[in-house]
UniProtKB/TrEMBL annotation:
Signal peptide: 1-22
UniProt key word Signal: yes
Protein name in UniProt: Protein TolB
Organism: Komagataeibacter europaeus (Gluconacetobacter europaeus)
InterPro entries recorded: 6-blade_b-propeller_TolB-like, WD40
Top-level division of the source organism's lineage: Bacteria
UniProtKB keywords: Signal
Gene designation: tolB2
Keyword Oxidoreductase annotated: no
Length: 614
């Protein structure tokens, strides 16, 4: 429990009359979908891979560990205070005496201890929601945003965040990576929705002075810096900026190529320490002449070294070696889907947050419908707490390619209730990259799964339907060459009219029927949230950030929730797994775009929110 919520509880107790019993009111719930690991356990082993053993017990989320310079403790990030709430802990090398160092509602991650053991450097999104390098004095608790000054901060219209700090051996300098002063850019030369990341390597004095860039390469991503034992060089990984998309996707990770490079901090002299194929990340000087690193993905996944030590083939993440080079700590993560209604950390004192599968919708009589993407992208209905679950449309009984279904590229997506709760409309077909060669149609069925019928004829890729307030019309999006935008189908007449002709998607009819919210591609790099009246007038742009804004949905009281990357990445993009846009957070605003505020602040991709009353 964070300090703010604890104080609220204590304060409430102080004003209760003697003998009174506190009434426990059930909280409202926000359901949301999170793309990230569902479990992550730390392991420790010898540098040659022998004597591997679990370091800490439990099946929560522990990750991003590092040894203290004296080897007497290990720092790590943990979500043991609530899934999504990243805090920093310290533990002895034998796994005892787990002690919290940083507990705060922000993301706090990637902690490293100074050589003299008195200062902690870490990444935090506190005080502005962007990732910056902070330093804490462990004796006084005093905090300083080391990258927060005007001379260090870059263009706020771009990503502009700071990652992976590393202390110099003398404790005078910190090295880190940053995407400051870089533009937002989509993958596939700007055609892709998901963004890539360009990073350079910087150093700054522990006193905040001497900030400068020490390594950069146009159209490349340089990340995870570490110092040589003599403090003369900094080592890092280097890959094409475009490759930061494939590095976090299961279908692309094995084909990504990166190299381990170091530079002389004084002269800029560059040495490339590796060659050949493979994604190589997390480099570290294990000794003065041996560099260890992580080979991510592919047949050779595991630990590798530039010389002398044989490679270890093992699925792991974020290795860190002990100061004497004899041990290595890392995590093993699981991406098994979260359970429906899995409790998550809540940043809202008025609501409990819980996980849901994708595209949830609530009928007026309180039934939840969703796409079972964690299973086989069929459609199920249930009570909001996950009970009385029934699959009402089974994708395995359709003509869809089951291999594409298994990879989440085909299925029954985005079910939408009719206002009377008797019908469900949805899209059936191939999605994401598969839509380029596949088909999709808008379907509807009764809530018991009967009377299934197509609403579109399949000549143009159609999906993501939403009912009008009176139930007489359905808005949906079409996608195809010379045939883009939103369409409205009149159900009694089966006549279709054009609402928009731009690159628009994910339409949602407001509860009062007055407006339709949707996502529009405004240029090659950017998507924003718009609304429009059903008659085609009153087009209004609600978001204007250079980052992507999407997946907008209405609340029952007429506000809009959506996901945005406006505050930038929370870590180096190439280090993520199985994710699309790793920085997405959930926001809420009024229907006119006013009073925007953030609802989540996690390390992961959060989207598809739904408010459920208690």
């Amino acid at each position: 429990m964070n300090r703010r919520n604890l104080l609220k509880i204590l304060g409430a107790g102080l004003i209760m009359p003697a003998g009174a019993v506190a009434a426990t009111r059930r909280k409202d719930v926000m359901l949301m979908n999170r793309i990230g690991p569902s479990a992550s356990q730390l392991y420790i082993a010898n540098a040659d891979g022998r004597d591997e053993r679990p370091f800490l017990s439990g099946n929560g989320l522990d990750y991003h560990a590092s040894f203290s310079p004296d080897g007497q403790s290990i720092l790590f990030t943990s979500e043991r205070n609530g899934l999504g709430q990243a805090d920093i802990f310290r533990v002895r090398p034998d796994g005892t005496d787990v002690t919290p160092l940083i507990s705060h509602p922000s993301v706090d991650d990637a902690a490293v201890l100074s050589p003299d053991g008195t200062r902690l450097a870490f990444v935090s999104t506190r005080n502005g929601y962007r990732a910056n390098i902070w330093v804490m004095d462990l004796q006084t608790g005093k905090l300083r945003n080391l990258t927060g000054s005007a001379r260090v901060q870059g263009n706020k219209a771009g990503p502009d965040c700071f990652f992976r700090p590393a202390w110099s051996p003398d404790g005078r300098w910190l090295a880190f990576s940053s995407d400051r002063n870089t533009p937002w850019r989509g993958h596939d030369n700007g055609r892709g929705w998901e963004h890539t990341q360009e990073l350079s390597i910087y150093i700054i004095g522990a006193d905040g002075r001497g900030f400068r860039r020490i390594a950069a390469r146009p159209d490349y991503c340089l990340g995870s810096p570490k110092w040589s034992p003599d403090g003369r060089r900094v080592v890092f990984y280097e890959m094409l900026t475009e490759s930061t998309w494939g590095a976090r996707r299961p279908e692309g990770v094995a084909s990504v190529v990166s190299q381990i490079v170091s530079v002389d901090v004084a002269s800029g002299e560059r040495i490339q320490h590796t060659s050949g194929p493979g994604l190589k990340v997390f480099p570290q000087f294990v000794t003065a002449r041996i560099i260890g690193y992580h080979r991510k993905g592919g047949l050779d996944e595991g630990l590798a070294y530039t010389t002398d030590i044989a490679a270890i083939h093992r699925v792991l993440r974020s290795p860190a070696w002990s100061p004497d080079g004899r041990q290595v700590v890392y995590e093993k993560a699981s991406f098994r889907p979260f359970a429906q209604n899995q409790p998550l950390y809540s940043w809202d004192p008025e609501r409990d947050y819980r996980h849901t599968d994708v595209f949830p919708g609530l009928s007026r009589d309180g039934k939840l419908v969703l796409t079972e993407k964690a299973l086989n992208s069929s459609i199920a209905i249930m009570d909001p707490d996950g009970s009385d679950r029934q699959r009402i449309f089974d994708v395995s009984r359709t003509h869809l390619n089951q291999m594409q279904v298994a990879h989440g590229m085909a299925g029954a997506f985005a079910p939408a209730w009719s206002p009377d709760g008797q019908w469900i409309a949805f899209g059936l077909g191939q999605w994401f990259q598969a839509r380029r060669t596949g088909k999709a149609v808008v379907m509807r069925m009764r809530r018991d799964g009967s009377a299934v019928e197509p609403l579109t004829d399949g000549t143009v890729h159609s999906g993501f339907p939403s009912y009008s307030a009176d139930g007489q019309q359905v808005v949906y999006r079409v996608w195809g060459e010379n045939n883009m935008g939103l369409r409205i189908l009149d159900l009694p007449t089966r006549q279709t009219r054009v609402l928009t002709t731009a690159y628009d998607n994910l339409p949602g009819w407001s509860p009062d029927g007055g407006r339709i919210v949707f996502t529009r591609r405004v240029d090659d790099e950017n998507y924003d949230i718009f609304t429009i009246r059903p008659n085609g007038t009153g087009l209004k742009r609600l978001t204007t950030s250079g980052a992507n804004d999407g997946h907008a949905v209405w609340t029952a009281d007429g506000r809009i929730m959506w996901s945005s990357g406006i505050y930038g990445f929370r870590d180096e993009a190439a280090l993520y797994d199985n994710t699309f846009q790793p920085y997405g957070q959930i926001f809420i605003m009024n229907a006119d775009g006013s009073h925007k505020r953030i609802l989540t602040d996690s390390l992961w991709e959060d989207s598809m929110p739904l408010y459920v009353p208690a």
